[in-house]
Amino acid sequence: MLLACLISSRASNELVQENPEKRAQQMLSQMTLDEKVAMVHGSAGPYAGNVPRNDRLGIPPLHLEDGPQGVADGVKLCTCWPSALTVVSSWDVELNYAFGKAMAIEQWLKGTNVLLGPMVNIARVPMGGRNFESYGEDPYLSSVMVAQSVLGIQSQGVIATAKHYADNNQEFNRSSTSANVDERTQWEIYYPAFQAAVNAGVGSIMCSYNRINNTYACENHQTLGIDLKTRMNFKGFVMSDWGATHSTVDSANNGLDMEMPSSDFFGEKLKLAIREGKVSSERLDDMVLRILIPMFSLGMFEYQQTGSLDVDVRLPEHAILARHLAAAGTVLLKNKNNILPLDTSKLKRIAVIGNDGDKDPVIAGGGSGHVIASYVITPLQGIRNRAGPSINVSYAATEPMEIAAQMAASADVAIVFVATTSSEGEDRRDLYLGGGQDELISKVVSVQPNTIVVVHTPGAVLMPWESSVPAIICGFLPGQEDGNAIADVLFGDVNPSGKLPVTFSIAEEQIPVNTIPQYPGIDNEASYSEGLLVGYRWYDAKRVAPLFPFGHGLSYTDFHYDKIQISSSNESVEISADVQNIGQVFGAEVVQLYIGYPLTAGEPPKVLRGFQKIFLQPKSVQTVNFSLGKKELSVWDVSIHNWRVSTGEFRVYLGSSSADLRLTGSFTI
Ligand code: GLC
Predict the structure, then answer these.
(1) What digits encode the pLDDT tens for the residues 602-622?
(2) Would you call 66 helix, strand, or coil by DSSP?
């Protein structure tokens, strides 16, 4: 009760305070050199990062804590949420906001006031160890969702941190690799989500471990000073990743504002550099202002925190939300002969197969973003709870496979749960599930035609068995409510509406970064030589059909698209269409808008420029409207270092995925 009223009392107040700049200037004018330097350096423990309180001036401490899917770093008694990649697979803007807000509520109650998330790096490398924390392979989808994460988090008076700026797209040699990226690719692929976070008012940005075009990200004048603080107009503070600071003078002068543990360049060395005139006192003032302004604007001086890391913040409504998020982010990849949803009136025996089904359910990724679950509803438990006493639900682990196959053969339907995961610090060696799971699936489906495969994964996986399996579901990393969420979808209590935020390849050699030798790089240099051709952009440009395309996801109902209308002026383009639920059950559709730039623009064949998730009863029709402004019609022009609207004929595609395009049209600027 206490927690709930504490939250409601703050949430109802207007958190954004008046005149944060003025109040920060006033505070700064009272600070000594030592007090200023004390604010630009964080120490370790008990939070991931700690900046001490200033008792003399009443400046609250900063407690920085991971991560993008809940309170991490070994902290207990909190919600183990689905991964960000799972939530973004719902393509539901409101849900993404709710996710950010709920995570921030738990962080605030734990005493955290800087949440080290969202993680906005593009999933350029399908094997990337941290793709589960990301928003997928597309800059537009990432941008829309990151903005909601930032707004949701900061609505609770907690500073959000968009990380890792920039080009931290692989874990292999992350502390030394140089990501060599051309300017246009940077602005059209890797920067947009950071720009969206800045536009949403993000209080801090974390610079990354890697080098960018041979200069460390945390002392890179081009990326920090020019691109982020000037061109993107970022007014908050840049903190380093942990141990990612490599200098005092270069870091300070090129744009780093706060050094996180466990290096010590911004302590006595910074004071010396200021005394020696190598770092100006104005630059130090700017660093402190950039920290104080978000603290004032988010009400940190009004709302004194009393939380600590051992507080139990497992709110009952968060367990319900975690289940809802996991189900909404579940993607129905295949459903031949409508074997799904399961019909309890016709089933007597269900076989649940595989370690991921009960013995070792995979629900989260590894590293600083790993969240400890205080409980896990396994798929077996979720299915038993939902099936009820009249249905026999049996279970067999992955090994011995013969037992699993026998059990599957004697059931009405077999549901094989397979999984893999990944972690910060290392990329996956390949995209196979491993652990004999591919073989398990082949064995089961050879004796049981009614086989459903459920995959839990941190990103794209290969499915060599796909053609022989009638139904496939991908739940990415589902969090503590794993079994309840998958049961909701399997039995049709939730009609699946997730869409893939990453492309699933047919085979390893089809993967973009494996076809151009720039992953993991040569001599610690990762040349982003594929340029704009990341994810589906590459498949479209090479005319290669992946296994399951970006934006793909089926439903238990069907949708009909009709009546596209396009009207354009030189300033904007309005596009509308009617979508109808022509099936028998309520369902949601993510209507996706892709545009093809004029051929002279040098863009990939088509790029996502809009999406709307609509919820329709059977037979209902809804008109969806999209408006494209200058920004959506521009390319980055390196000759003016700015966006420029393309001119010529644009092609318009509206559809249910990047490959399932239902309506087309065109307009000319
Ligand atoms: C880690 C991660 C970063 C995390 C930080 C604090 O190395 O790269 O995402 O927020 O350190 O744990």
Answers:
(1) 999 999 999 999 999 999 999
(2) coil
